[in-house]
Amino acid sequence: xxxxxxxxxxxxxxxxxxxxxxxxxxxxxxxxxxxxxxxxxxxxxxxxxxxxxxxxxxxxxxxxxxxxxxxxxxxxxxxxxxxxxxxxxxxxxxxxxxxxxxxxxxxxxxxxxxxxxxxxxxxxxxxxxxxxxxxxxxxxxxxxxxxxxxxxxxxxxxxxxxxxxxxxxxxxxxxxxxxxxxxxxxxxxxxxxxxxxxxxxxxxxxxxxxxxxxxxxxxxxxxxxxxxxxxxxxxxxxxxxx
Length: 242
Fold this sequence. Notes:
The chain is an alpha/beta fold.
């Protein structure tokens, strides 16, 4: 049976719980290679977005609103059991927009939404990356590749990822959303004490959307890639609490 295009692997039919993970700007689902496949009873399910990795030939989604609509259409059948969503920085906003879309469609809501290293929708767009030149973004991609364990990416690979990251950042620039009625699921807002890209003190606006709990973990902007114990423990605790 073919793997549904929104996943790198078909979600397990035996999972009690699913944690749907949105990729970081410029990346595909394989960026979660350093994460365990299970966190407690929850299966970690990275989402694969168009325009990258095995969906490279597909056009970019354009806006977070369009992406959220497409994601919900594509994964609705997998919202058949308790689940949560996770997104970091450029993945947090489309994750949250997807929760809004799920709610508007009257589908089963997530038990929780985890947002890491990102300001709330009404406080953006925000971030140093949004004002970077092409060469500065290329340097940032080199740092991202190093964090993922690839020290010497080829020029062709950098160009490929640069195109995707540039399109993702343009979607971020377009996204600004005033607070509306909010969302019914609770939020876990995750900051990092040494994150200079999105300082945790700027993330307080999420509490205007839902019941939000905030945690500041030790680490930098890219620490989440290695699934550190402090992050896994918080995920386990909040997944168990619904």
